[in-house]
What we know:
The protein is of the alpha+beta class. The protein folds into two domains: 59 residues; 121 residues, Alpha-Beta Plaits (2-Layer Sandwich). The chain has six helices and five strands.
Amino acid sequence: MDLATPGATKLVGSLSLLVVAGLGWLLVVGPETDALAQAREEITTVRDQNAVLTSQLAVLEQQREGLATTRRDARRLAALFPPTADQPGMFEEVTAAAVEAGIGPQGVTTLTPTPPVLGTADAAAPASAADPAADPAADPAADPAAAPATAGQLLARQTVTVAVTGTYEETQRLLENLEHMPRAYLVTAVSLASGSEGGEFTTTITGDMFVMPPVVDPGKTLNLSSTTQPEG
């Protein structure tokens, strides 16, 4: 084949162009195309993430709007069911209730709390053998570890006995004051006996107070600093 002829020159030129085009694709266009496809995939991923973050942010904003009410309820619960037995605070509240009733601190002859016990009387009652749902062993699918904590598992009960000496009217006011203390006091029994002096009675009041773990502040779990990522 004579390369000096016009036909051979055209053929060689065409082959050279094909070789250059192939090398250009392999060295320039191909990598750029792969990079462009990867960039588009990353943009799609970021858009999906932004959609999820936007949805989560909307939920967090709604929770933040109700945060003040939740905190107010948490403070009220902490007053009714404190996180500790707080015996000095309990003695102070009971004594204040007696003073307001007209009995005075000297009239409070006994104030005895028992250690808090986790669970309530209902939770501690044995399950009926006739009820298979009450027996975890009867249900293989039951998983006590996965079950959420109930109120009986979170609430500890302590029995508080108060003995006072006063008139019938003073004792009646004391009972009302005890049931309206900031800390919840559930009166379960009242025993009334005549005192040594006329018109006075010796009254023994038995009731329950409760201890509960503090409510977690939801504001500490809200993370409103998360923002969407820029696309591209």
